[in-house]
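Hi F.,

I've been meaning to write this up properly since the lab meeting, where we talked about keeping a consistent format for the predictions we share between groups. The idea is simple: the sequence comes first, exactly as it goes in, then the structure tokens exactly as they come out, then a line or two of notes. No screenshots and no reformatting. I'm using this chain as the first example so we have something concrete to point to.
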Amino acid sequence: MENIALPSALSSIHECITYTNGLAKFYETSFEEGKTVHAAQTTEAIKSLKEALELVATNITNVTTTLSSYIDCQMDEIESVNIKMNQLKHRIAKKNQSQELSMVEPMRAPTKTTNPKSNLSTYKITNGSPTNKILNKSYEQRISMNPFEKG
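Output, unedited:
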């Protein structure tokens, strides 16, 4: 729209200004001091200048309307770009959040659904010395008191 309407409106205003300036110069030279001016000339000059001014006013109104429409279109485009940018920011934030969560998963502590006894049984001392038997008994008592164990 703005590629056609705006240059056309500006061109029209330029033509009106040129026409109005030409009329003004013509009547200025026609009404110089010492020249006899017929009443019809004066009436015609005033009528022509009024028409030219009305034409300029109409063109200014058209340009104002065109510029307002152009600004509205540009504001809509800016709003559209802002919406798309916010959507992209949201997607990036969600992706970053999911990556952070995937990094945290392996570091989580055992929950009630896991069996800590099975993880701890690898530490049982297998040597048959009396000291080791005491340590094993103490170890098994601690495991049996584990609140996470089912049963």
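Notes:
The helical segments are 2-30, 39-104, 116-120, 130-144.
Residues 118-122 have pLDDT under 50 and may be disordered.

If this format works for you, I'll send the rest the same way.

G.
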